[in-house]
Design a protein that fits this description.
7-stranded mixed beta sheet; globular; choline dehydrogenase activity; flavin adenine dinucleotide binding; FAD/NAD-bd_sf; single chain; 551 residues; alpha/beta; flavoprotein
Length: 551
């Protein structure tokens, strides 16, 4: 074989895999990425994320099918098409979710994926600015830091949340998740720390690692029943790369798409498109889940927002010291709420506060100064699917999330909008809020709010679940992340999550790749031993137990 490992997708998981699998010089590793290099300057300047909207050269720019629950609208789904994947275009919030999320994974038959099992891999990946603790690690590749610049309105938001009785929390990844505070971000010295920066760049000089950009994977190749390589297109050239083990890390959209293009998926769907069925695997593309989000916008009495800043002034201040608004992730503050509709003691609503007017992902620029509260339902019941539109690998698949298809989802989303209004109505905002812009004064009751949600809700960019991990008939991969019934093939990305976690999905995706790579290579940490010589097995286990008891 040309390579020991072939990885499809240089996103949040793929960059981790490329680094960790190539640490052993005897492993020959090939990484294929459909996008290009992460050269764009706005990728690396944190606030530049606002300028990346609509940049087709680094964004797949997907759209969903018309959503019956959202008035027939098609929703815009940006996904990174560049080294680092979506970690190169996201808002950099570092969140792991709640311990019960992972305990539920394990209870569903995924042994080794409970909270006590995954926590060491979060810790192992992390370089925490505030230092190591039972919850956090230092010296890992992924830099997690405090914001260098915080708009004063973010502080007002936290004061208002406290006045509303929602509590404060200085670490969403600590002993408790609920409460409001400032997000920590995946940044390093005021610059974005994407998975490409954290993991791929340090490994690029290794002779046993090859990275090919502009390489669009079209099909998995087989030797008998075993996956043996990938056919890909680079410009007008079609080539095939061979490997002893093929790993799909292309994300919740592209990984199931590639499986189905290769004849692995629901037989009825593949047959309808004339694709020869190699393996009837009913769960491929199914179980699609996403966090739906609603924005409440108000006009601000004072010109302190990020709406009318001078790009030149912001850019110069950033270039001279990597400080000021240019170092902000824009969504600086937020929080986790256990609403009256929660099914257990986990937060079921997450908020992101933006000291600016933000509508339609920033594509609809509004005049004046204002503030925005994003609010999303963390554990939706709605399930959708991804299907092929045709046999053409270059054609985007059909994305059908089926938002708001259950009464529970509709109820919690209305609570999201009510809660945002409640926070803006607190005394802390009395001198700052001029008037509500959206949903607006005509929106008076829950029925009005639901209609507003149908008209304006959007994704907050967390699709998962389409190659779910498990042992049931709809599972695509086993708990070792190997595709059921296909030797030599694994899926390692957010698509393997059986259920959405209670928060942002980037950090958990990195954790998944860390855990897979280490266990594949027989890492000492994977067997419960020291990760870096800094702690004994017993110390590490005591740390895990301590966090487990308090989370």
């Amino acid at each position: 074989m040309e390579h020991d490992y072939l990885i499809v997708g240089a996103g949040s998981a793929g960059c981790v895999l490329a680094n960790r699998l190539s640490e052993n010089p005897s492993n020959r590793v090939l990484l294929l990425e459909a996008g290009g290099r992460d050269w764009h300057p706005f990728i690396h300047m944190p606030a530049g994320l606002a300028k990346l909207v609509g940049q087709s050269s680094i964004n797949w720019g997907y759209e969903t099918e018309p959503q019956a629950g959202l008035g027939g609208r098609r929703l815009y789904w940006p996904r990174g098409k560049v080294l680092g994947g979506s970690s190169s275009i996201n808002a950099m919030c570092y969140c792991r979710g709640h311990r019960k999320d992972y305990d539920e994974w394990e209870a569903a038959g995924n042994k080794g994926w409970g909270f006590e099992d995954v926590l060491p891999w979060f810790i192992h990946s992390e370089d925490q600015e505030n230092g190591p603790s039972p919850c956090h690690g230092s010296g890992g590749p992924l830099s997690v830091q405090n914001l260098r610049h915080v708009n004063p309105l973010s502080g007002v938001f936290l004061e208002a949340a406290a006045e509303a009785g929602l509590g404060l929390n200085d670490d969403f990844n600590g002993p408790h998740q609920r409460g409001f505070g400032l997000y920590q971000v995946t940044q390093r010295n005021g610059r974005r720390c994407s998975s490409a920066v954290a993991y791929l760049n340090p490994a690029r000089g290794r002779e046993n690692l090859r990275v090919i950009t502009g390489a669009h994977a079209e099909a998995i190749e087989f030797d008998g029943d075993r996956a043996s390589g990938v056919r890909y297109r680079q410009g007008r050239t079609v080539a095939t790369a061979r490997a002893g083990h093929v790993i799909l890390a292309a994300g919740a959209i592209n990984s199931p798409q590639l499986l189905m293009l290769s004849g692995i998926g629901p037989a009825d769907h593949l047959g309808a498109l004339g694709i020869p069925v190699r393996l009837d695997l009913a769960g491929v593309g199914r179980n699609l889940q996403d966090h739906l989000d609603i924005c409440t916008l108000v006009c601000c009495n004072h010109p302190v927002t990020y709406d009318q800043l001078s790009d030149i002034v912001v850019g110069l201040r950033y270039l001279l010291g990597r400080k000021g608004p240019g170092s902000s992730n824009i969504a600086e503050a937020g929080g986790f709420v256990v609403s009256r509709h929660a099914t257990d003691d986990r937060p079921d609503i997450q908020m992101h506060f933006v000291p600016a007017l933000l509508d339609d992902h920033g594509r609809n620029r509004l005049s004046g100064h204002g503030m925005t509260i994003h609010a999303c339902a963390l554990r939706p019941e709605s399930r959708g699917e991804i299907l092929l539109r045709s046999t053409n690998p270059a054609e985007a698949p059909m994305l059908q999330p089926r938002y708001l298809s259950t009464e529970y989802d509709r109820t919690v989303m209305v609570e999201c909008a009510r809660l945002a209004r409640r926070i803006f109505a607190q005394p802390a905002f009395s001198d700052w809020v001029a008037r509500e812009l959206l949903p607006g004064p005509d929106c008076r009751n829950d029925a009005d709010l639901l209609e507003f949600i149908r008209r304006k809700a959007e994704t907050i960019y967390h699709p998962v679940g389409t190659c779910k991990m498990g042992i049931d008939e709809m599972a695509v991969v086993n708990p070792q992340l190997d595709v059921h019934g296909v030797p030599g093939l694994s899926v390692v990305d957010a698509s393997i999550m059986p259920q959405l976690i209670s928060g942002n999905t980037n950090a958990p995706t990195i954790m998944i790749a860390e855990k897979f790579a280490a266990e594949r290579l027989g890492s000492r940490l994977a067997r419960g031993g020291p990760a870096d010589g800094a702690a004994t097995t017993q110390q590490r286990q005591r740390d895990v137990d301590q966090v487990a008891d308090r989370a």
